[in-house]
Design a protein that fits this description.
- The chain is built from five helices and four strands.
- By secondary structure, it is α+β, with helices and mostly antiparallel strands.
- It folds into two domains: about 80 residues, no CATH class; about 110 residues, no CATH class.
- Strand 3 and strand 4 form a beta hairpin.
Length: about 200
């Protein structure tokens, strides 16, 4: 799917709205969404209803219907569809722990890099994430902004920026950070938690 295809982008946005409505307002959705639409949203991939819904929304890839709930929290899902120069290698047996009511020790090793840089290094970047000492995922590919020849920015980074970056929700969300440490070399980091 091409993220420049406006009909497909609108289809993904509409699908996200429908998914959100079904999750947050199930009684409303059951009352006002047709039984055929509800069935299409809940049918497994390959079913005729599912294919019809994908076609109606302008989605050439009907598997987006089953994968859309994975991106329900994303503010602009259209930015995450289509071909990407990213490889995601998850550790199937290790999942992110539920942070509700308890601390989760997170470690991120970030090495920015892009193969489309006009200046500076032309190499793939990599992010490795650990939670409570267990490796969760490795992401490789174009990570960070493309360095352009005409850019007047000084080559420095990456820099740390944190917060709750997600689609707006009605309930209150809070994030507590403690014992933050950042360094260009692993041996310079505080020994806060161990990564395996």
């Amino acid at each position: 799917m091409n993220r420049d295809d406006q009909q497909a982008v609108q289809g993904v946005q509409s699908l996200q709205s429908l998914e959100t409505m079904l999750k947050r307002q199930p009684d409303f959705a059951k009352q006002f969404l047709s039984p055929a639409l509800q069935k299409a949203l809940q049918s497994p991939d390959g079913e005729p209803e599912r294919k019809r819904l994908a076609e109606t929304l302008g989605l050439t890839d009907s598997s987006l219907l089953s994968r859309s709930s994975e991106f329900a929290f994303v503010a602009e899902p259209e930015k995450y569809i289509g071909p990407a120069a990213i490889e995601i290698i998850s550790e199937a047996q290790n999942r992110l722990p539920d942070p509700t009511g308890k601390w989760v020790d997170m470690i991120y090793r970030v090495q920015p890099g892009r193969i489309d840089n006009e200046i500076g290094p032309r190499r793939k970047g990599e992010i490795v994430i650990w939670a409570n000492g267990k490796k969760i995922v490795t992401v490789r590919g174009n990570i960070g902004a493309t360095l352009k020849k005409e850019s007047k920015l000084e080559l420095s980074g990456p820099y740390f920026k944190f917060g709750i970056y997600r689609k707006r929700v009605s309930e209150d969300l809070s994030l507590h950070l403690d014992e933050f440490s950042q360094a260009p070399k692993r041996y310079e980091l505080s020994k806060l938690c161990s990564a395996k």
